[in-house]
Amino acid sequence: MSTDLAILGGPKVFPQGLPFTQPTLPAWEEICPELEGMYRSGWLTKGPCLRRFEDSVAEYLGVSQAVAVSSCTSGLILALQSLQLPPGGEVIVPSFSFMATFHALYWNNLAPVFVDVEPDTFTVDAEQVRRAINPKTVGIMAASTFGNPPAWERLLEVGKSAGVPVFSDSAHGMGTLYHDHKLGGHGVFEVFSLSPTKLLVAGEGGIVATSDSRIADWVKAGRDYGNPGDYDCPHVGLNGRMSEFHAVLGWAALKHLDEYAEHRNSIAQAYKERLSAYPGLSFQKIREEARPSYKDFAVLVNEEEFGINRDVLAKALSAEGVPTRAYFSPAGHKLTPYKQCRCLDLTHTERISSQVICLPISSHMSLQTVDKVCKAVGKIYAQRDKLTAID
Known about the structure:
This protein is an alpha/beta fold.
């Protein structure tokens, strides 16, 4: 029998398909002269565009040092290396995070200890961190989940009490405000991503933000194989340089970052208003003192109340031309390289990772597109009984 659900043969809400996200870039007319000047200079790496970009980011974030690197992951690896933590030491980290968070620990021969997140903010639970402290603990790693910052005051208190450094994978945090200030100055360092899925796009790249000159100097040398400029290498580095092209793109985009963040917040609010009509759908709680970047817009699907589970909803939305992502499923403690790592109780992580679905969002997405995505969700909910056999 014919039905209007695409997964059952009906027409799609988005016949041409909708991108999950798209980079929002400065106008070509704005960036073209900068690119042409860089190109004609023949200076393609380690040049004035990089230094200008780093200075601009440091001023924007309110930190003394912003070191540009080839990726957030390389920045995390080098910044962690600068701390010279003892090999085999344990770093407490939320399991509900992207794999790069844990990979950076692995490359520094550090052992992640997985702890739970708060049930509503999806950010690391400071009390769980406190409970995980033991003589092997050498650090605490936080994360700004989808741009929602953690409870920094409580985390720093735990770190100070334990005598260990606190740092952050703030990959999602560029564009976030916390107590009306940008992220970047919390803990000994924060590292941001500038990849095409983020608000501040440099093509690829990352920023290590710190007010510790020793960490900054280590990362600057480390991104160039460990060479501080005399072709000796006091420590082993890697090729983690950011090119002049990426620096130009990032510098031009930085001027629009707050505009992008405000727009994403309006898109997220529109999603919440429209989707709140459906039982069983809930949203990440944003800290009252924060304006998140909304790098992703996450929805939790309670199968008992909504009538179908997250995975069935994802398949039905895909058929309608609406792509989704299950960030972060599996969570870190279930990833193959980390299954043997120590864990505390992960009740909330398990629930969130089994229910989470991220809907399309970008810094230039229209409210009309939000309406159509929510229409697709409504179609599916109205005919959910027809989907109970799908797994």
